[in-house]
Amino acid sequence: MLYDKNVRSDSAGRLYYFDNAKFILIFLVVLAHALSPLQSRSAFCRVAWVVINNFHMPAMIFISGFFAKRYISRAREIKVQRVVTNVLLYLAAQLSVAAFERFVLKAEIGFSLLSARSSLWFLQCLIWWYILLPVLRNFPPKAVMILAVLFGLYVGYEDKANNFLALSRMFVHLPFFMAGYYVKQEQIEQLSARKYKWIGLASFAVVAAVCLIWPRTAIGAIITCNTPYEKIAALEAVPQALQWVARLWFYVAAAALIVGFLAFVPRGRAIFTKLGKETLSVYILHRFLYLAYQQYQWYLPFASPLGIAGMCLIALALTVAFSLKPFTLPFHWLQGVKISEKKKENAA
User: Fold this and answer.
1) Which of 25, 26, 10 is nearest to 327 (CA)?
2) pLDDT mean over 188-214
3) What does the radius of gyration of the chain's CA atoms come to, in whole angstroms?
């Protein structure tokens, strides 16, 4: 059966909704990378890239924040294991990607454990957020969200925060993580209402139209969140004191698109639901292909409309393939490395 809307969770109570959302999002990650080199050759690819990148990582981070509730138990016990696991995953992925670039692609790269290669910044950010969470949770949610947004707007003025320890992306995306942490499951359930689907459709239409009609407003460097305002060419004519407005637009667009996306995610058991548990292997492994795809210009045969359609199918096939064994086994092994210590949070 392709989809069973009447079955919402497995025998252990794991909701299929979030696995469905994660599979769709990781497919969009792969698809966005596939479309990226074709932006200059196709208006469709440019618009699709902007729309996808406006929300796919913020949505993934929002879901990560939602499940971070388990990081600190009701007994105020911090599960340090989660931080350790993310550190191990980051180090293994960073070393592997750097070795691939250096010895397979023969790229002259400077290596550092502090500056993430490729899209591994997400793992660095997770480490930061889990370190900060025991502190942030002691403050009123409204204050945390306001300060998180303000820091996200401000960090664009810091020219040394770009890729070092993913500090820029960590601060810019912190509001999405904390929003996921604060949101309740019943609020997620309410998103199935028709009005949120209309909000979603309108949001996707508006962002696509803005990108198509005013392409200079679709600032890729704002969306990727790792470039200071002063180094973004599209903001050169904007007074320095107002450059933060570009990132505010990103926040508004991303929030609306996340709501719309979550409203449309199927809540029942789908044919791809089980694959949504294995997004980590897809996230890391597809990057090796993407680096070769760019360097060897494998995208050139896909510049036509038919080629773009074929590329979408290839992206879907790769997402499915990297979600299966044996590709997931190394990640399961790393996630299985355990520590026995538990650290209690200081009473607030």
Assistant:
1) 26
2) 90
3) 20
Q: Are 225 and 172 in contact (CB under 8 A)?
A: yes
Displacement of CA 103 from its chain's centroid (Å): 28
**Which residue ranges make up each domain of the chain?**
3-339
Classify residue 87 as exposed, middle or buried by CB count within 10 Å of its CB (0-12, 13-18, 19+): middle
Helix (H, G, I), strand (E, B) or coil at 9: strand
| Dihedral sign from CA coordinates of 283, 285, 286, 290 | positive
- As beta bridge partners, residue 72 has 78
Q: What per-residue confidence (pLDDT) applies to 347?
A: 42
Q: What's the CA gap between 127 and 314, in Å, rounded?
A: 32
Query: What is the structure's pLDDT at 211?
Result: 85
Each residue's pLDDT tens digit, 216-237: 666 777 888 888 999 888 898 8
Region 140-164: mean pLDDT is 93
- Report the alpha-carbon distance of residue 122 to residue 170 in Å, rounded: 8
Locate the DSSP E strands across 253-329: 269-270
User: Within a 10 A sphere around the Cβ of 195, how many other Cβ atoms?
Assistant: 10
Share of the chain above pLDDT 90, in %: 73
Mean pLDDT for all residues in the chain: 91
Contact between 150 and 38 (Cβ < 8 Å)? no
**Of the candidates 123, 72, 119, which has an alpha carbon nearest to the alpha carbon of residue 97?**
119
Confidence of residue 76 (pLDDT cuts 50, 70, 90): low
State the pLDDT at residue 348. 38
Beta bridge partners, 164, equal 115
**The Cα angle at residue 116 between residues 30 and 318, in degrees rounded to 5:** 20
For 330, the enclosing helix (H) or strand (E) is helix 329-335
For residues 117 and 101, is the Cβ–Cβ distance under 8 A? yes
The Cβ of residue 340 has, within 10 Å, a number of other Cβ atoms equal to: 5
- Please give the angle made by the CA atoms of 80, 84 and 86, to the nearest 5 degrees: 120
What is the pTM assigned to this prediction? 0.93
Tokens of 337: 């490395």
Distance CA 163, CA 119 (A): 11
